[in-house]
Amino acid sequence: MITAEDILGKDFARDGVDMDGFQKQARSYAIYKKEFKTVYPTLGLVSEAGEVADKIKKWLRDGDANKEDIAKELGDVLWYVAILAEDLGYPLSDVALMNIDKLDNRKKRGKLRGSGDNR
Ligand SMILES: [Mg+2]
């Protein structure tokens, strides 16, 4: 398994990967035109999520999977999430915290099950 320490070095990886630092680094690899802001990363996000689903589908079909390959696809998903969040004006850490806050609120109210964005 590849660790953050392998890629980023011991000091950077010590406390985990900083989400906003990841977002900033991710942006440095983005090469789409400004007029495609939000649309390009949305299409990429859906495409990469499909790649994850395809690998899981083949896991079901074949009975085994290379989990590192799936993790790499999840990284692709994360890259597009980071870029889309930035295109929308959100630090990735804010997106993460908003999600935890939403889920924590649902949990406290016994609403983890069910459906609807605003339950
Ligand atoms: Mg991919």
* Number of DSSP helical runs: 6
Q: What small molecules are bound in this structure?
A: magnesium ion
**Overall pLDDT, averaged?**
91
Class in CATH?
A: Mainly Alpha
- The domain count comes to 1
| CATH architecture assignment name | Orthogonal Bundle
Helix-residue proportion:
55-70%
Number of strands: 0
Q: Please give the largest β-sheet.
A: none
Q: What overall form do the CA principal axes indicate?
A: globular
Strand content of the residues, in percent?
under 5%
The assembly state of the depicted protein chains is single chain
Question: What is CATH's topology name?
Answer: Helix Hairpins
Radius of gyration: 17 Å
Helix/sheet category: mainly alpha
Report the end-to-end length measured between terminal Cα atoms: 38 Å
- Encode the helix/strand succession as letters: HHHHHH
CATH homology superfamily name: MazG-like
Low-confidence stretches: none
Write a brief structural summary.
The protein is mainly α. Helix content is 67%, strand content 0%.
Structure commentary:
Helix content is 67%, strand content 0%. It has 119 residues and is mainly alpha-helical. The protein has one domain: Orthogonal Bundle (Helix Hairpins). Helix 3 (19-27) packs across helix 5 (67-87) and helix 4 runs antiparallel to helix 5 (67-87). It starts with a helix and ends in an 11-residue tail after the last helix. The model has no long low-confidence stretch (mean pLDDT 91). Bound molecules: magnesium ion.
List keywords for this structure.
single chain, 119 residues, mainly alpha, Helix Hairpins, 6 helices, 0% strand, globular
